[in-house]
Design goal:
By secondary structure, the chain is of the alpha+beta class. Helices cover about 65% and strands about 10% of the residues. α3 runs parallel beside α9 (about 195-210) and α5 packs across α9.
Amino acid sequence: MDEATINRQGLAPLQPELDRIDRVASIGDVMDVVALLHRRTMLVSGWSLPQRRVLFTARVEQDDTNSRRWIYSLAQDGISVRPAAYSGTDAQSLKIRNALREYLLKTFMRLDGDSARASASVDAVYNLEARLAKAFATGNESRRMSLAEFSQVAPRVDWTRYFSRLGVDQIALVNVSHPRFFEALDAETRTTPLEHWKAYLRFWLIRLNAPFLDDGTYGEFFALEAAITGQLQPRPRWWRVVWQEKNWLGLPLVKLFEQDSLPERTRGRYRAIGESIRRAFRSRIERLDWMGDTTKRAALQKLA
């Protein structure tokens, strides 16, 4: 929330990561940076722009085939705007595409200060994202597979090393959505020049952190958001900070608020409302004619 300091620092807080990207010398190094960004942005909510992650989405979620199990899921991602915007000829696609290229140019001018180098980086990143967008699949195809099986889908990537960089020493299964995207990603690791990957990582480092950096960096980010969503004004910094706290610390914060700020009379009123809802659910469960007694007992225990 210290806007004066943040604006004075500019991109300086990201310098260690920018230096790390400069030292990238292999696809393994590229994936190390991807893992670092995944680890750091896993708790950042996607309230601005459609929620995006660098290269692919990676998260822990409940396994929809076994509700008692949590599973690490990987899905297609790594593009800045919707897939159709990279090739569409309609007015909105053109508007978004131009806004993305403008955002890329401003970002690389901020990073490099050299128009020729910045233009080359814009083309490298845009074209890489466009190729990834072309590989996007529709539908809900997903496969649960061992790490060895997944390594056959995208063998150029050392997935054991990726998970190790996340802090995961052992993993039995992964849920892979749209495996064909990862086949295309594997092909990109073979053909895309390393300098293009470095430009891509530099851009995504800025893009993912923009809402928390100086006003100029965030303003350039917001211009793309405005082109996509039509939003006229950026949300103020306090709102962006509070959103993150609310999203990930909502229930604990509510408990603190209740303890410190709610009179006992108000607390009693809300408890009574909550209990009346619980009674209504209990009554409905008890009257269900399609649920057996054993399942009803389990449902009532869960309700309690």
